[in-house]
Structures are given as C-alpha cells and as structure tokens.
Amino acid sequence: MQKIRLRDLFLIFLRIGGFTFGGGYAMLPLIEKELVEERKWLSGQDFLDIIAVIQGIPGIIAINSSLFIGYKLRGILGALSCVLGISLPPIFIITLIAEFLLNLQHNALIVSLFTGIRACVVVIIFWAGYRMGKKAIISYKSLFYTVGMVIGMMVFKLHPIILIGLAGIIGIFTNTESEELNHDHN
C-alpha cells in the first residue's frame, strides 16, 4: 500500500470536522465511509476496534478517534495531522457562534435551523449505532451481552462508565467468537 500523505489525512479530518454537527458519534459514520469504505486505509475490524478502545478511555470521541486513527495510519505525525484537522473547524465555528449567538438566540430562523439540525443528528447517530451493532454483534453471546447492557442502561440506569467496565470484564472472561450470527458484516 502506498504511504498515506499527512496532508490527505489533515484535509479529510478538516472536512469531517467542518461539516459534521452532533459531536463525535455523528462523525463516526463519515470517518468510516471515508477511510474504510472509500479509501480502504482501515479494515472494518480495525475501525470497530478503535471505536471500542476510544469508548473505554476518557476524552472527546472526535479527538480520540482521530488521534488513534492518525497514529495507526502514520504514527505521531499522522495523529497530530488528524487531531488538528478535526479540531480546527469546531474551534472556529464555536468562536463564531459564541460571538453572535447571544444576539441571535431568539431569532426564529436560527431556532428553526437548529431544530432541523438536531433531528438530522439523531438519525446520523442512530445509523452509526446500527452499523456498529451489525459489526459488533457477531455471535449469540455478543447479542445476549448487548441486550444485557441495554437493560442495564435503560432499566437499572447504570452509568455508561460502569457498563463499559462491565463489558470489558465480560469480554475478558468469555469467548464471543463462537456461534456466529448470519448477517452481512458490511
């Protein structure tokens, strides 16, 4: 495989950072489409592994994912290129919003704009969860554990950190690779 240029990494993450609303989870499908599906710089399993790791460590999803991906693809300079690319647009946009939002926060057009964007973000995050679930739920055991985690969160109101720790412990002590489910992992 040809060496990936730092400039390309920077520009990809700059574009993703500039045109994604809804935070890190909303960025994940765009990162996956660009790096896994279109450029094939990462395998689907590599991407899923990176997502699993970044959810288990503190920090911002967008920064952590770009850091890990950049490091995997080009080492420390790749990590810096991706983090800088994904960070600059939100910093610029937040600065502009902070400057002007106080004057426009009650403007009907602005309120309507953000209402529409919020609805779209919910769909993007749902789609990311669905696609990641198709790749992560690979056996009847992993399906059982996923349902257990949903119950833990929705019924018992367990904190996500507790669920992540519990999921890691379960993963260490069990084998979820057996009894594969019949579904397409794409």
Describe what this molecule looks like in 3D.
The protein is an all-alpha fold. The protein folds into 2 domains: 6-136, no CATH class; 138-186, no CATH class. The chain has 7 helices and no strands. The chain has helices spanning 6-19, 24-38, 44-55, 61-104, 108-136, 140-154, 160-173. α3 (44-55) crosses α4. The radius of gyration is 18 Å and the shape is globular. Residues 178-186 have low confidence and may be disordered.
Task: Lay out the secondary structure.
Elements: H1 6-19, H2 24-38, H3 44-55, H4 61-104, H5 108-136, H6 140-154, H7 160-173
Keywords:
186 residues, mainly alpha, 7 helices, 77% helix, disordered C terminus
Work out the helix count. Answer: 7
Q: List SSEs in N-to-C order.
A: HHHHHHH
**Count of discrete domains:** 2
For the CA atoms, what is the radius of gyration? 18 Å
Largest sheet: none
Helix content range of the residues, please? over 70%
Report the end-to-end length measured between terminal Cα atoms: 22 Å
Residue runs with pLDDT of under 50 for 5 or more positions: 178-186
Write down the overall mean pLDDT.
85
The tally of strands reads 0
Question: Which outline best applies?
Answer: globular
Please state the structural category: mainly alpha
Q: Can you summarize this structure?
A:
The protein has helices at residues 6-19, 24-38, 44-55, 61-104, 108-136, 140-154, 160-173.
